[in-house]
# Entry
Amino acid sequence: MKKFLCVLAVIVIAIIGIVTVSRVHSVRANNRALVAYFSATGNTAAVADRLANAIGANVFAIVPADIYTAEDLDWKNDKSRSSMEMADRSSRPAITNTIDNIEQYDVIFVGFPIWWGREPSVVDTFLESHDFNGKTIVLFATSGSTPTTADAAENIRPIVPNATVVDGARFPVDVTADELKTWAGEWL
Ligand SMILES: Cc1cc2nc3c(=O)[nH]c(=O)nc-3n(C[C@H](O)[C@H](O)[C@H](O)COP(=O)(O)O)c2cc1C
# Structure
C-alpha cells in the first residue's frame, strides 16, 4: 500500500510538472504583440528592434517600394519626394510587404520617424493594407524635436476606425530596453 501511494504521488507530481511546463511554454509561444516600424535613416529601426527584443515580440519592417534617398528626404526642398508626399494627405506610397498573419496579434506597436509633425504617408499605406479590426495600435516615434505622437494619432484614427489607436510616445534614439519594456508593459 505504501509503495502504491509512493508511485501515485510520483505520477501526480509528474502530471503537475508537465501541466505547469506546458502552460509556461504556451504563454511564451502565445505572444500576441507585434512591433511594426518604418525607418528611413535607422533611428526608429534601432528603437523598434530594442523594443521587440525587450518584450519578446516579432518585428515587421515596413519597406517602401521605392527606398527614400537622401535627396527624397530633403525637407528643406519643397519639391523633394517627402515634401510633396507629406503635402498631399491622400498620398499613399507603395510598400513591398504586408503581414500575413495579422489575426494572431492583439497589440501592434507601430513606429515611425516624425515627418512634418506626423506619421510618414507610407505608414498610412501600411495601415490601410491590413485589417486592424478590434486591435490595439500603440504609436511610437523618433524625431528631431517634436515631443509627441499626438498629431500622428489624430491622423491615424480615421484611417483605422475599427482599431483602438493609442497616442504612445516619442523616444530618444538611446532609450534603454528597460525603459521600453516598462512603457510597453501597459498594453501586454
Ligand atoms: C522629411 C523629414 C521630415 C521631418 N520632420 C520632422 C518634424 O516635423 N519634427 C521633428 O522633430 N523631426 C523631423 N524630422 C526628423 C526625423 O523625425 C528624425 O531624424 C528621426 O529620428 C528619423 O528617424 P529614422 O532614422 O527612423 O528615419 C524629419 C525628417 C525628415 C527626413
Notes: Strands lie at 33-37, 58-61, 107-113, 136-142, 164-170. Residues 32-187 form a domain with the Rossmann fold fold (CATH 3.40.50.360). The longest strand covers residues 107-113. The pocket of flavin mononucleotide is lined by residues 39-45, 73, 75, 82, 113-117, 142-146 (CB under 6 Å).
